[in-house]
Design goal:
The protein is α+β, with helices and mostly antiparallel strands and 375 residues long. It folds into three domains: 195 residues, Sandwich (Jelly Rolls); 58 residues, no CATH class; 105 residues, Outer Surface Protein A, domain 3, CATH 3.90.930. It is built from ten helices and 17 strands. The strands form four sheets. Strands 1, 2, 3, 4, 5, 6, 9, 10 and 11 form a nine-stranded antiparallel sheet that branches. α8 packs across α9. It starts with 6 loop residues before the first helix and ends in a 6-residue tail after the last helix.
Length: 375
């Protein structure tokens, strides 16, 4: 991706702070999908898809799977399909165009097709998104920053905000990218039929991180560990009073216990959790070959932390310990590259076993040859 500013400046001044329009970010870009491909995928029961349109001024929403007749509407409509990168390797490859951001923050690629003058209404998201124009033109109107205090209009499952006076307006052509940070109001309207690829990054909630960290500590904390009064025992207090010093002493005791018993697994487990079910033989990429190069499934969320004597591996919300000698193979797979299956089994037996157990590997041949025309 060609940014209009340096990557260092983007990360320091724009990332999670303010929008950035990147015209011609991907030169000579050709959409890897056609509207027919997307509509075909939306007919699959396993795909998460929805249609959004307006009827007599009210917003409507319908969830898939769809039939061809569902796309025959008089009003402008938009088809949106989540996690399209899990189905098509060509779409998954779009991630390689993104700036150098934590790989474990990436969520998925949502693809939308819109008829002329269609959109999903003014709204804001709680995640970072790179809006890549795939085909046709879309006008994006950007508004003010929003948060949980911003009034939202719930219409048929859609959380919208009131129409706003745009602070910035951009017309995106194929290959153009618009980065929108969390909380920024935006409203996309198609100018003729168009397709858009939304590459989203999620951030775990602080509440989820805190709950997981505390849960881990409670599992290791002895029930016999009691609050000690320490220096507060010598402080004078009025009858029944809990002083600021008492509060500080109790807070310090909790913080000390958390720091002492923290196993440092909570972040990796939370950011690699998946919402999908276990994969089976019906996985869209097909079966795993016995020989040849393998790589990570698009669905697999893999992260790791290097310790002094081991590697903590996090895969789809689970934790595993590996030897340091296996780390090079972990890094290769996280980078999206392939590894020879026999070599992986021989040099990283524990890693190989974990990946097989979770169905996280795919034969490179299946990844490359997956035919979009199947949909």
């Amino acid at each position: 991706m060609i940014l209009p500013v340096s990557e260092a400046r983007f990360l320091s001044e724009y990332w999670q702070q303010k929008p950035l329009f990147c015209p011609g970010a991907i030169a000579d870009f050709q959409s890897p999908l056609t509207p027919e491909h997307l509509a075909g995928l939306a007919m699959e029961p396993e795909a998460e898809s929805r249609l959004v349109w307006q009827s007599h001024g009210a917003w409507q929403q319908q969830s898939g799977p769809f039939q061809e007749s569902d796309f025959q509407k008089d009003a402008p409509w938009t088809l949106l399909v989540q996690r399209v990168d899990h189905w098509f390797s060509e779409v998954a490859a779009l991630k390689s165009n993104l700036p150098a951001l934590p790989q474990w923050r990436f969520d998925d690629v949502m693809v939308s097709y819109a008829t002329d003058e269609a959109g999903v209404g003014p709204h804001f998201d709680r995640y970072d998104v790179f809006l890549l124009q795939g085909a046709g033109q879309r006008e994006w109107r950007l508004g003010p920053h929003c948060d949980e205090r911003t009034p939202q209009l719930s219409e048929n499952g859609l959380n919208l905000i009131s129409p706003f006076e745009p602070e910035h307006t951009f017309i995106l052509e194929p290959g153009d990218v618009l980065y929108v940070p969390p909380g920024i109001a935006h409203w996309g309207v198609s100018r003729g039929p168009c397709m858009t690829y939304s590459l989203g990054f999620r951030a775990p909630s602080v509440a989820d991180l805190l709950a997981r960290r505390v849960d881990h500590v409670l599992e290791r904390l002895s029930e016999s560990a009691l609050l000690e009064d320490g220096h507060t025992a010598t402080l004078s207090a009025r009858p029944g009073e809990i002083t600021a010093a008492h509060l500080a002493n109790a807070r310090d005791a909790m913080h000390n216990a958390i720091d002492a018993l923290d196993d440092q697994r909570w972040l990796g487990e939370v950011v690699t959790e998946t919402s999908g079910s276990d994969w089976d033989d019906e996985h869209p990429y097909g079966a795993l070959h016995e020989q040849g190069p393998v790589k990570l499934q698009a669905e697999a969320k893999l992260a790791w932390t290097e310790q002094k004597h081991q590697v903590d591996l996090f895969l789809n919300g689970t934790h595993h310990r590996l030897s340091l000698s296996e780390l090079p193979h972990v890094i290769t797979l996280c980078s999206g590259k392939s590894v020879d299956r026999a070599l992986l089994e021989h040099e990283a037996e524990a890693l190989y076993s974990v990946l097989l157990e979770h169905g996280a590997l795919i034969s490179e041949e299946h990844s490359k040859n997956r035919s979009m025309l199947d949909h």
